[in-house]
Amino acid sequence: MADLVMPPCEHRPRPYDGPSRDEVLATRRAWVNPGIFTFYAEPLLLVEGHMQYLWDETGRRYLDLFAGIATVSCGHCHPKVVRVIQEQTATLQHTSTIYLHPNLGAYAEALAATLPQGLDVSYFVNSGSEANDLAILMARLYTGHFDVIALRNAYHGGSPSAQALTSLHTWKFPIPSSSGVHHVPCPDPYRSRYEGTPEQVGRACAEEIRDIIRFSTPGKVAALIAEPIQGVGGVTHGTPEYLQRAYEIVREHGGLCISDEVQTGFGRTGDHFWGFERFGVVPDMVTMAKGIGNGIPLGGVTTRRELAETMTRRVHFNTFGGNPVCMAAARAVLQVIQKEGLQENARVVGAHLKAGLEALATRHPLIGDVRGAGLMLGVELVRDRATREPASTETAAVLEAGREMGLLLGKGGLTGNVLRIKPPLCITRQDADFALEVLDRALTRVAGS
Ligand code: PMP
Prior knowledge:
Oligomer: single chain
Largest sheet: 7 strands, mixed
Order of helices and strands: HEEEHHHEHEHEHEHEHEEHHHEEEHEEEH
Bound molecules: 4'-deoxy-4'-aminopyridoxal-5'-phosphate
Low-confidence stretches: none
CATH topology of the largest domain: Aspartate Aminotransferase, domain 2
CATH superfamily of the largest domain: Type I PLP-dependent aspartate aminotransferase-like (Major domain)
Structural class: alpha/beta
Strand content: 15-25%
CATH architecture of the largest domain: 3-Layer(aba) Sandwich
CATH class of the largest domain: Alpha Beta
Number of strands: 16
Shape: globular
Radius of gyration: 22 Å
């Protein structure tokens, strides 16, 4: 077999002289909440990053196809973003929104320019969970209704209210979380109980929304919240018709439509800047986080002014939300995405990668389904293509084999049997070819073991 060669990279990592991996692991085990988990049987210590590459403490380089969980949109330590953060931090880091600072309004204005007209007023917070909490709050206040529809297999966050929206038993704790949330079937045709074409599955799933509103709510709802393409759930989505019908039904019953763009926003899906655009719908609210800041802790909700006005009925405050550093970083991220053509790169390199994955599927029976758009791709592994039995241990083994060969992948899905590919949007065609070669070898190895 030919040698495996990672595409060249001129960046040289600094020699690492920090604590050893064992020390880092021991300190973490001793002092950090054990619920904060790591990937890999032997957790990986990463000490430096440059664009699509990461380095461990030994100086070994990895191609990063998970991007800090679909977050590092421009690339690790993108020089422009770093410079802006450094300059703003050295000038004025924090005052809170009780004083004026030019960065807040300037970024909100730049963000509004990426969204359909009317979606132009933003509230910035620190995470995706907070953004979703806030969106649901505004929807309930504006409509005067309480019930919320979310999709099964969704992930909307880990805070108690966002956990109520999340629909994966593995991520839900037995606590009283926000009530009034109803989960409707996920329109993903691969694992649907409904038979027929993806369009037929989508229509049947949309009708479930009408039923749940009729049977489980007072007949009116506050909102539907949905990821256009489910991320943690394993890169699953329905047809455009599904989301269009879902939005219609919810609006017929007095509800607002919230698009959770935490993973799908900021050009990741290639053809569009926002995930909802792919499905031909216009939401009433857009929630965002992750890729908005390239790693800076930042989330937000953008909506119409009349909806945003609901927040003036009481006092609401977020200490760090919209701080000068995060706003400067986010503005730089937006400029980099636009000036460096990252959305177009996601489209072109994503299509190449997806075609390569589909070609692998013809040779590797472990691959049950390849799906997604742009640089948000999923590869579902199954033990048997007829029964679609999830190949969860095999997926973990592919991740391990990838790491050994210098490739970092993600995984997701309710049973952890979907490889999630969500790299920095700057990866090249050569990176994609390297990744495909590694996956080919990893799948061969895992199938043979
Ligand atoms: N929504 C989606 C679609 C997500 O993927 C996530 C995080 N995985 C969240 C919300 C929650 O974001 P955070 O972890 O920043 O709270």
